[in-house]
Write a structure and sequence with these properties.
The chain is α/β, with parallel strands linked by helices. Helices cover about 45% and strands about 15% of the residues. The strands form 5 sheets. The protein has a 6-stranded parallel beta sheet. The protein has a 5-stranded antiparallel beta sheet with strand order 14-13-12-11-17, with no helix packed on it. It has a 4-stranded parallel beta sheet with strand order 18-7-19-20, covered by helices on one side.
Length: about 675
């Protein structure tokens, strides 16, 4: 019977599962939860969502995956566009505007974000989420704005679907487009928790074959063993088709549709039609089954929802037996021979909202879909079989696999080798894996890493508590907490040491007060120098405007920089003079050292970008100018420069976009 594996949570024999639950409960460290097929990732996700005390949301890349996970799509929650979002793209400014006040409050209160099926999420989407969380939560220096992230999925099964033109654009910014390629993870990788205990298959020989196919290490012996189950060699093929529930997994949608249509046509009797109903907001792409269903008595069907009475689960197979129009219920024979009554089922499309009174995160139903929870199931695509388990499976690769992990997904749907039939012999090149994914999984955490992470978290919590006590003036408690944190050097428990530390802390408070006073004086001096520096910039500008005196202007800008070395305007003006005299390289050498500090200055970044363009380093010019464009409002000179640079680089789509904005801006003026 195809059913959900019974998984005990927490499972005392599952080391990785136990540590994962502790990491979520005791730390704020971001985590990648992964594991081979049948290790209970989805079941564990539901357990975490149902038991964690942290304010959280569950997000997923598609409507179907969000429906299955009981959450909301990533795009709808963050109002993200569906196209690529390269770093620095100005579209994020518009995204931020679309996020309403109530949604911002919800996001600020989050402690945990779970993203399911993360293998299908591109790196640029992760970076967009990172930027939005930092900005909305006001924590620009903390990855994901300080929210703990739990990424769930198996990178060996599903990979991001990226159009060729999108891939060409994003490849300029990312070395790979899997979620972990995001710039947000620079020096901040999530801890990888790889579940290893398989609950689906009990045959360790089969489990070993699947493991090696998953990582692209299958042997000729593995392939030979699989090929003993091809159609030509399998004597039980006819029995599987006629006497047992058997489902075909195929790479192509049209092949699955043709099989279902042919099998349905072979049955005697008239078809019975079931019309579903959509209410309010429920996208067609998220429908778990067809809006119009047509069955005959004896049709093989699959359940697409879990039964509250536990007679079947999502993915169970059965034979359609009858329909009572008066009662509005269908009768289905299950794989175990039992008959069950199937009523129309209502799926709910949800979004998250914040309860202002309780500050809790709640689900709001924004749409419903009602239909008999069945679909024809003599055949389904390998993609749609994700997460399901079957006793008897026929696998049709239709001439070969075409996506990474496709063969592994198909084979791992089978509970055993005995219940599997291959329509064509399995070939080595049907195994498609990504070497970068294999390398990434080498970083999976060990028990010592788990313990170090938990110990570090405990210490950080103690340090934080000690700092809070120190800020409140409770020095004795602060010292006590510091002593507990420094367990490896437990000298602070000694009374003399504690007394000395308290004296030092009191001295530190006095020093801090003195430093504050000196800092205030220093700030006043700096403000005065800045003011004088700006006056010299204005004098230089007057020299250029009134007497065209470039040398006099240059002397004024040098005086401005002597008073304030990081005066962005003075640097920009001086660079402009260098450029006008043909010394663009000197302009770059002047500006580049200060770029990261002053890149937000319009004049500064514009001059640097133009200088790079002067020496035909158009890619560097584009980096500088496009970053500036993401910060400042529309600017004629900047847009014209971007048009010129993108034209040189051959970025046609960028050029077209900048020209359109430039034309609109000129008309407006």
């Amino acid at each position: 019977m195809s059913s959900a594996e019974k998984i005990l949570i927490p499972d005392p024999e599952n080391l990785e599962m136990s540590y994962l639950l502790r990491l979520i409960r005791e730390t704020d460290k971001s985590i990648f939860l992964t594991g081979k097929a049948g290790t209970g990732k989805s079941t564990l996700l539901r357990y975490i969502s149902g038991t964690t005390k942290k304010k959280h949301v569950i997000l997923a890349p598609t409507g179907i995956s969000a429906l299955n996970a009981g959450g909301q799509t990533l795009h709808s929650f963050f109002r993200l566009p569906f196209g690529p979002i390269p770093p620095g793209d100005t579209s994020l400014k518009n995204v931020l505007k679309r996020i309403r006040k109530e949604q911002r409050k919800l996001i600020r209160g989050l402690e945990l974000i779970i993203i399911d099926e993360v293998s299908m999420v591109r790196a640029d989407l992760i970076d967009a989420v990172d930027v939005l969380l930092r900005m909305i939560r006001g924590r620009m220096n903390q990855p994901f704005g300080g929210v703990q992230m739990l990424f769930v999925g198996d990178l060996f099964q599903l990979e991001p679907v990226v159009q060729r033109q999108d891939s060409e654009l994003l490849s300029k910014f990312y070395t790979n487009l899997y979620y972990y390629g995001a710039l947000a993870f620079y020096q901040n990788d999530p801890i990888i928790v790889e579940l290893r205990k398989v609950y689906r298959q009990k045959d360790q020989v089969f489990v070993g074959i699947l493991d090696r196919i998953r990582t692209g290490e299958a042997t000729q012996e593995d392939i030979a063993l699989l090929n003993q189950h091809t159609y030509q060699l399998n004597s039980k093929r006819e029995d599987l088709s006629s006497d047992s529930f058997n489902i075909t997994l195929t790479t192509r949608k049209d092949r699955a549709r043709d099989i279902n249509d042919k099998k349905l046509a072979e049955l005697l009797g008239s078809p019975m039609t079931f019309s579903g109903a959509v209410k309010d907001d429920f996208p067609e792409s998220a429908l778990p089954t067809d809006l119009e269903l047509s069955f005959k008595v004896g049709a093989q069907v699959m359940f697409v929802a879990n039964d509250p009475n536990h007679q079947w689960v999502n993915g169970s197979l059965g034979y359609f037996e009858d329909y009572d129009p008066e009662l509005g219920v269908a009768s289905v024979q299950l794989e175990n021979g039992d008959y069950c009554t199937v009523e129309p089922y209502t799926w709910e499309n949800k979004k998250y909202k914040l309860n202002e009174e309780t500050s809790s995160i709640e689900e709001e139903i924004i749409g419903r879909f009602t239909q008999i929870p069945l679909k024809l199931a003599w055949a389904i695509t390998i993609h749609k079989s994700q997460g399901l388990t079957f006793e008897n499976v026929t696998i049709d690769f239709c001439g070969g696999t075409f996506a990474a992990g496709q063969a592994y997904v198909a084979l791992s749907r089978c509970r055993s080798l005995e219940g599997m039939v291959l329509l064509q012999p399995f070939r080595t090149y049907d195994i498609i894996t990504r070497s970068e994914v294999v390398n990434y999984y080498q970083k999976a955490a060990t028990e010592s890493v788990f313990e170090d992470t938990l110990e570090e978290s405990r210490a950080l919590n103690l340090y934080t508590s000690a700092c809070n006590c120190f800020n409140k003036g409770d020095l004795e408690q602060a010292v006590s907490l510091l002593s507990e944190a420094l367990v490896t050097k437990n000298l602070l428990d000694h009374p003399r040491v504690r007394k000395m530390l308290m004296q030092k802390l009191y001295q530190l408070i006095s020093v801090i007060d003195l430093i504050k006073k000196e800092n205030k004086k220093e700030q006043e001096r700096e403000e005065k120098f800045k003011s004088l520096s700006q006056e010299f910039v204005e004098m230089g500008d007057q020299c250029l405007e009134e007497i065209a005196g470039e040398h006099a202007a240059l002397r004024s800008y040098d005086k401005a920089l002597l008073l304030c070395p990081n005066n962005a305007k003075a640097l920009a003006r001086k660079a402009a003079l260098y450029r006008n005299s043909g010394a663009s390289i000197d302009a770059i050498e002047l500006l580049q050292p200060c770029y990261e500090e002053l890149f937000r200055s319009r004049d500064f970044s514009l001059e640097l970008g133009l200088a790079y363009a002067d020496i035909q380093k158009f890619d560097r010019s584009f980096d500088v100018l496009s970053r500036l464009q993401a910060i400042v409002d529309d600017d004629v000179d900047l847009l014209q420069a971007l048009v010129n640079v993108t034209t040189e680089l051959g970025y046609k789509e960028h050029t077209k976009r900048y020209k359109t904005r430039l034309t609109r801006l000129k008309k407006k003026k």
